[in-house]
């Protein structure tokens, strides 16, 4: 009997590796041996495959069956190898064509009745198969929509092992079965979060537009009820649609997290707002065998909003420093390293003190000065250093409310137009550099010959630097914000007014 | 005698005939000691072969080979040792084989032979 050989995909983070599945019958007492570092779920493939084959009408030899997953040293998880194992076994038994299965990548979990169940992570797995040069991939019917989102590979959707075997040349009578589909949750109600809902707080609204235009991280400081959460939740609505590569990344992460992807790539930036009891594993990703993406990875391409930031464990917050720096989340485990995209825009919100009232115009703070200092001291300097916009927001007064009723407010749609135009401005200016938005540009470039501003323009921050009011790093951040403000105004370069406004966007903590 | 014992007896006869036809010499049948029983002992060239014969009238409750468990093989190995002790003049390599006989009523019985299973 020949060796049956086919392929499946093992996922590590978003990276998929092609795994070769070999099956061989030897003249020994009946036994099913599965080797090549399977985890518990994959080890149980043995029983699923045998039952599914029997219930699909395949008469397998009563001999020793050895299934090898190679490369043998690569850890493999999950039930997505079932279909590949079953078909390699059928090929070893001479029921399906060995040549036919060798050219196709097989993904899918088997039910005992032989029907195929959809699996998570189809999108990155099919992408990996396409990248490895395979022309066809066989997936469960329930995953067909998601798999077809990947260009350049033919998707063969099958409902059962019997149907898969027939496709590969087995002589069975086709039997119609009801395919198992993904339980689609109700399509998420597109919450109508419009910027026009925010009244008063014009400074803060403008700051959110600046954050969206330049991709700047933001820190909002203010008493409870000043609209911090409301503002942060509206930031994704201001961002432009995702580009093709980011859309694939965002959809792949969703697929890997077991969330519904549907029949189109995600095009709107995601918003993740983990609770302040989140652990480092919940925020960045983790797990000992299967490494799963955390909230920060799910927010990649969009906004990661940490409400009540000082309540987070400080080590958890500091774990964000590495992705903020590199745009990649790397999770190291004993047997593997997984990488996830980590290009999210961070928005932190905090009360000014434990009771929340410090600095509010209408109430008294009851905290001692040391309690106040300790509270914000939980946000480490290095983390705050990476946040361009640091803004104080205030509760609105009745006068502002009255004014707001009369005036017109900017809507998210209008703001998005401004943001998109400003981003185009920046991209044009930064053409030929590795950067596309202002937040990515390093200080030396801003102070260098390409972007040097006149002494008159920077006079206010030069003076602040002299007095020790801001540090050199803070100086660079103000320059960066000035450029974004200039882009929003369609100015060729920042004016003294832009620099002054940029300085204002930084003053929450120093004021 | 119960029907299942009849079937087992018939299976062993068939297996013995099958082995003779394949050039083996059957030297012992149903050898018993305190620990149990060896179905067949045969000689294949220089090898002493201990054979477990499993007979079934259909595969409805699984293939006969599936009934040969690791424990059964371990017992067979101990029995093989006991047999060699009782027959010290028999020297040379030993091995354990398994034979499955599927003897459906009114059909030609099917015999499968696995060599060196333990």
UniProtKB/TrEMBL annotation, chain A:
Similarity remark: Belongs to the Mg-chelatase subunits D/I family. ComM subfamily.
Keyword Nucleotide-binding recorded: yes
Pfam families: ChlI (PF13541), Mg_chelatase (PF01078), Mg_chelatase_C (PF13335)
SUPFAM superfamilies, per the entry: P-loop containing nucleoside triphosphate hydrolases (SSF52540), Ribosomal protein S5 domain 2-like (SSF54211)
Name of this chain's protein: ATP-binding protein
Keyword check for Ribosomal protein: no
Keywords associated with the record: ATP-binding, Nucleotide-binding
GO molecular function: ATP binding
Domain AAA+ ATPase residue range list: 214-397
Source species: Terrimesophilobacter mesophilus
Cited InterPro entries: AAA+_ATPase (IPR003593), CHLI-like (IPR045006), Mg_chelat-rel (IPR004482), Mg_chelat-rel_C (IPR025158), Mg_chelatse_chII-like_cat_dom (IPR000523), P-loop_NTPase (IPR027417), Ribosomal_Su5_D2-typ_SF (IPR020568), Ribsml_uS5_D2-typ_fold_subgr (IPR014721)
Segments crossing the lipid bilayer: none
TrEMBL record, chain B:
Domain of life (superkingdom): Bacteria
Recorded GO MF terms: nucleic acid binding
InterPro entries, alphabetized: Restrct_endonuc-II-like (IPR011335), tRNA_endonuc-like_dom_sf (IPR011856), UPF0102_YraN-like (IPR003509)
HAMAP family per the UniProt record, alphabetical: UPF0102 (MF_00048)
Family: Belongs to the UPF0102 family.
Protein name as it appears in the record: UPF0102 protein E3N84_04140
Organism in which the protein naturally occurs: Terrimesophilobacter mesophilus
Taxonomic path: Bacteria, Bacillati, Actinomycetota, Actinomycetes, Micrococcales
């Amino acid at each position: 009997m020949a060796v049956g050989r086919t392929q499946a995909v093992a996922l590590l983070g978003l990276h998929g590796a092609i795994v070769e599945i070999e099956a061989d019958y030897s003249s020994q007492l009946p036994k099913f041996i599965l080797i090549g570092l399977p985890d518990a779920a994959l080890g149980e493939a043995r029983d699923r495959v045998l039952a599914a084959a029997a219930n699909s009408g395949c008469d397998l030899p009563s001999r020793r069956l050895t299934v090898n997953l190679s490369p043998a040293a690569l850890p493999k998880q999950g039930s997505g190898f079932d279909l590949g194992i079953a078909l390699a076994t059928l090929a070893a038994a001479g029921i399906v064509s060995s040549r036919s299965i060798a050219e196709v990548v097989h993904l899918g979990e088997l039910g005992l009745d032989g029907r195929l169940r959809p699996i998570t992570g189809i999108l990155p797995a099919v992408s990996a198969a396409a990248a490895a040069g395979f022309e066809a991939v066989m997936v469960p019917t329930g995953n067909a929509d998601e798999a077809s989102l990947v260009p350049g590979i033919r998707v063969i959707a099958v409902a059962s092992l019997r149907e898969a075997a027939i496709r590969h040349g087995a002589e069975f009578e086709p039997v119609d079965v009801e395919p198992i589909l993904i339980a689609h949750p109700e399509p998420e109600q597109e919450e109508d979060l419009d910027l026009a809902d925010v009244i008063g707080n014009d400074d803060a609204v403008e700051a959110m537009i600046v954050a969206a235009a330049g991709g700047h991280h933001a820190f909002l400081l203010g008493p409870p009820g000043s609209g911090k959460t409301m503002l942060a939740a509206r930031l994704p609505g201001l961002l432009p649609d995702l580009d093709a590569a980011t859309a694939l990344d965002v959809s792949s992460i969703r697929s890997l997290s077991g969330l519904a992807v549907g029949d189109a790539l995600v095009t709107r930036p995601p918003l993740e707002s983990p609770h302040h009891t989140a652990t480092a594993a919940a925020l960045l990703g983790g797990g000992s065998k299967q490494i799963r993406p955390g909230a920060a990875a799910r927010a990649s391409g969009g906004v990661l909003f940490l409400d009540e930031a000082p309540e987070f464990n400080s080590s958890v917050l500091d774990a964000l420093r590495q992705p903020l720096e590199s745009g990649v989340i790397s999770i190291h485990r004993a047997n593997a390293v997984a990488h996830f995209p980590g290009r999210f825009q961070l928005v932190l919100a905090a009360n000014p003190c434990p009771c929340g009232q410090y600095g509010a115009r209408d109430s008294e703070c009851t905290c001692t000065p040391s309690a106040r200092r300790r509270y914000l001291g939980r946000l480490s300097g290095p983390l705050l250093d990476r946040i361009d916009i640091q803004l104080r927001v205030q509760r609105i007064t009745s006068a502002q409310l009255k004014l707001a009723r009369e005036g017109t407010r900017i809507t998210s749609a209008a703001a998005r137009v401004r943001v998109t135009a400003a981003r185009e401005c920046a991209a044009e200016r930064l053409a030929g550099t590795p950067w596309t938005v202002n937040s990515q540009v390093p200080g030396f470039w801003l102070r260098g010959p390409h972007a040097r501003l006149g002494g008159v323009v920077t006079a206010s921050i030069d003076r602040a630097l002299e007095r020790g009011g801001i540090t050199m790093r803070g100086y660079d951040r103000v320059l960066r914000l000035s450029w974004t403000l200039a882009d929003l105004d369609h100015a060729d370069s920042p004016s003294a007014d832009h620099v002054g406004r940029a300085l204002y966007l930084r003053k929450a903590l120093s004021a | 005698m119960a029907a299942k014992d009849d079937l087992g007896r018939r299976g062993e006869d068939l297996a013995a005939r099958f082995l003779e036809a394949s050039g083996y010499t059957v030297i012992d049948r149903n050898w018993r000691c305190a620990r149990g029983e060896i179905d067949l002992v045969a000689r294949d060239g220089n090898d002493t072969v201990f054979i477990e014969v499993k007979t079934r009238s259909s595969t409805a409750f699984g293939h006969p080979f599936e009934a040969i468990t690791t424990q059964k093989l371990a017992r067979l190995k101990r029995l093989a040792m006991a047999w060699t002790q009782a027959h010290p003049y028999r020297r040379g390599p030993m091995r354990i084989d398994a034979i499955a006989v599927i003897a459906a009523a009114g059909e030609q019985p099917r015999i499968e032979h696995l060599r060196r299973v333990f």
